[in-house]
Recover the amino acids of this structure.
């Protein structure tokens, strides 16, 4: 019999499946989950104090939320978007992106950060960057890197 956490995860996956969202890959952080659907969409839920859910905030989510891109951005390397007293909002990519959904081919979660590889091969990282795991120039808590 699965653990209590395993049972909770299975319930959420069945719930998503009932909605027509089929998760093909899943990665577990310390207290958050990153799921990749068969259509290339990212769904995240759980603890979000470091922005590891990619939701442009630090609110915890009990149920899956589809990750969306924020606004059109054009940059070559790392661009500091906004800084607060506790977080740096950083973009790390090399293309011009438009507002809307992000379609990915792979996801991975660390303890307090997440990564996604887009269908174009771009790497996106969000969450804690305390040890350089989000691969940005500044080591800090990065609430979002998409």
């Amino acid at each position: 019999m699965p653990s209590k956490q395993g049972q909770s995860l299975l319930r959420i996956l069945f719930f998503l499946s009932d909605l027509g969202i089929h998760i093909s890959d899943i990665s577990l952080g310390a207290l958050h989950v990153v799921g990749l659907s068969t259509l290339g969409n990212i769904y995240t839920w759980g603890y979000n104090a470091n922005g590891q859910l990619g939701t442009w905030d630090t609110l915890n989510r009990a149920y899956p939320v589809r990750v969306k891109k924020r606004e059109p951005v054009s940059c070559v390397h790392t661009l500091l978007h906004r800084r607060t007293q506790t977080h740096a909002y950083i973009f790390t990519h090399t293309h011009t992106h438009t507002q809307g959904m992000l379609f990915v081919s792979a996801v991975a979660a660390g303890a307090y950060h997440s990564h996604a590889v887009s269908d174009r091969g771009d790497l996106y990282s969000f969450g804690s960057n305390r040890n350089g795991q989000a691969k940005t120039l500044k080591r800090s808590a990065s609430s979002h890197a998409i």
User: Anything to note?
Assistant: The chain has a mean pLDDT of 76. The radius of gyration is 15 Å. The chain has one domain: 4-142. Residues 4-142 form one domain.
